[in-house]
Structure formats: structure tokens, C-alpha cells
Amino acid sequence: MATSGLAELPPQLGEEEAASLARGVEAPIALTGATGFVGRHVLDVLRAAGVPRRVLVRGAGRLDAPADDEEVVLGSLEDEGALRELVRGTATVIHLAGVVRAGRAAEFHRANAAGTGRLVAAMLAVAPRARLVHVSSLAAAGPSATPEGRAPQELPAPVSAYGRSKLVAEEVVRASGLAWVILRPPAIYGPGDRDVLQFFKLVACGVVPLPAGERWVTMAHVADVVRAILAACCVGSGEVFHLGEPQPRRLDDLVAILASSADLPAPKILSMPAIVLRAAGVAGDLLLVLGARGVAMTSDKARELLARHWSSATLPSLRRLGLPGYVPFDVGARATWAWYRRHGWVPRGTIRAG
Asked: What are the C-alpha distances in Å from 241 to residues 42, 162, 190?
């Protein structure tokens, strides 16, 4: 059993659980961000449950093996016509699309804030009675002053351009007049993720650089985020929920758990001064401007890393959503190591069989 009176849930959603989660969701469903990390997992569950669905993708080749019963709309959040086609006749819209890494604040605003505004406008025009499940980010709320974590009702104080763009998007949703729910997940990990993967790789190498000072964080396994998204399709409107484990963890403890879950020795932790992280962020900005892809560190990410606690008060949200439990980090990490190993994303020889 997990703590806080909630059960330990598996890191995989089987067909029976998928069907149960989707049972109360009003269909058809429109989905943005279907080709992203979380979106692929949401789409897998909707497919397994046989829920009528329509997905927005930039190109047909970006979607892995579209199912015969799946409607595909080609376009983006900048295409007003495609957005209207996406949401027309739908009962539920799950909005996941956005930009998490960019070299300029304007790029975040264009994708996250303005893009959400166009989606809301499309819904008001052709699907005003549909429910909008808007997947935001803990970055919109900002870091917490205490390890216990920031609660959904606290006044947001984002510290990054990304977080500010996500907060503007939330404000657009709140003012829309639609039936809406906002979800704020923290750092999400699991099969297929490439962001937290960097920490797995560092642990496998035996050296992990971390910002100096004690920091507490909340993590969420992607399976739990999918569970929350589907649960949010069935709760009352006008609510904000924080997702993730009920107990924040110290960042160095997370690193130790990552190592032990793969039978690796505890890595050496390098305490990184703020000036080094800021310099790495500036270098990352330059690489993005030059057209590089997969840049892990930018000035915006450096500002987030240097914030004291990325922890969140999630227990009331989990209970309100009716979720029976969550994936504990050690369980989720073990399964994620195994997936990375099978797909060759981490060295095979350093990870135990999953």
C-alpha cells in the first residue's frame, strides 16, 4: 500500500482499467497534443477503451498507426479552421498541446497562450457545450516556499516564461464561459519521456549535477496523469487540480531512489552554483536560436531549476478526482528503467531486468 490512505497503483493501465476510467467520459473526445509524451499515453487508453475520438496532428506521419475508428485532423493550434473541425460535434476536449522549451518568451506565448485562445474560440463557435480539460503545468502556479508544496488555491507566482505563458492560458480558459477543468501536473516521467530521461542517464553514468541547497519536488508517473485526465472529464467544472505523489521528496533522495531502483550504486552528486546553471542556460538559448533540437538546458529551465521547491499539495485533488491511489516513485522508476533498457535509451548492462 502507498501512504496517505491511497493504494499503490501499477505503472501500466490495462484494458479493464482503461474501460473503467473511460466509462463516464462524454464522447466523442477531441484531443490536442496526441503525438506528445502524455498525449500518446492518453490516446492509447482511449483506443483501448474504444472511445470515439478525433485528434489534431501536424502531419499524418506523426501519428503512429492511426486506428480505423479514429478521426485525424491535420493542423495545429495556429490553424483556426482545423481547430473548428477538431471540436465540432465533440462533447469533451482534452487540451495537451503546447511548447515546453523555447529560446524566446514570445514563442511560449504564441504556442501556449495564444494557441489555447484559438482553441477556446473554436469551441465557443462550434462546440459551446463541450467540456474542456485543460492540462496546464505546476510551472503556472510557480515554486513553493515550503517543502509541503503549493496548493491549487494559492495565488500563482510563475518564475519562468514557460510558466507565465501557461498561466495566461489558464486565465483564457477561466474567462471562456465554457465548462472547464484545469490540471497542473509537476515533472512527469515514464515510458517515452525524454526530459526526465536525462536524470536517468546521469544516474547510470554515476555523476549527477544538482543546484546547490536543499530542494523538494513532486513527481508524477505518466499513468497517474492519464488517470487524472480521464477522471477530470467527469467531475464538476470550474476547478483546478494539482497532480503527483501526495508526499514531496527531497531531490537528492529522488536521485538515490533512481539508482537503487536499477540496482546501481548511489551516484556522486555535484553541487552546482547558480552562475554555472545560468551560463549553461544562455548557451542552450543560443543553440535553440541556431536551430538545434533536443536542447535540455535553457535560461528558462535554469530559472526553474534554481527555484527552491517544486513541490505541490496534491492529496485533496487526488481525492476530489476520485483516484484510488498513485504510482510510488520507486515502482514507477523501476518500470521506466526497464522500458528505457528495452528501447536502448540507457545502457543495457547497468540496469537489472524489469
From this structure: 18, 19, 21
pTM of structure: 0.92
Q: How many structural domains are present in the chain?
A: 1
The per-residue b/e assignment along 86-123, b for 16 or more CB within 10 angstroms, e otherwise, is bbbebbbbbbbbbbbbbbeeebbbbbbbbbbbbbbebb
Phi, psi of 23 (to 5 degrees): -60, -40
**Spatial contact of 326 and 162, defined as CB atoms under 8 Å apart:** no
CA angle 58, 227, 256 (to 5 degrees): 95
Rounded CA-CA distance 133/240 in Å is 10
The three cell numbers of residue 190 are 515514464
CA dihedral for 196, 198, 204, 210, sign (positive or negative)? negative
Residue 339: CB atoms within 10 A of its CB come to: 17
Query: In angstroms, rounded to a whole number, what is the distance separating the alpha carbons of residues 330 and 259?
Result: 10
pLDDT tens profile 248-285: 999 999 999 999 999 999 999 887 777 776 777 677 76
> Tens of pLDDT along 191-215?
999 989 988 999 999 999 888 888 9
Is residue 341 assigned to a domain? no
- Which domain does 75 fall in, by range? 7-191+219-248+310-328
Report in angstroms the alpha-carbon separations of 139 from 100, 157, 159, 184, 199.
Answer: 10, 9, 8, 8, 19
Q: Is residue 85 part of a domain?
A: yes
Q: What angle do the packed helices 161-174 and 299-306 form, to 10 degrees?
A: 90
CATH number, domain containing residue 48: 3.40.50.720
- Residue 312 near residue 166 (C-beta atoms within 8 A): no
First vs last Cα of the chain: how many Å apart? 21
Q: Is residue 302 part of a domain?
A: no
**12 lies in some domain:** yes
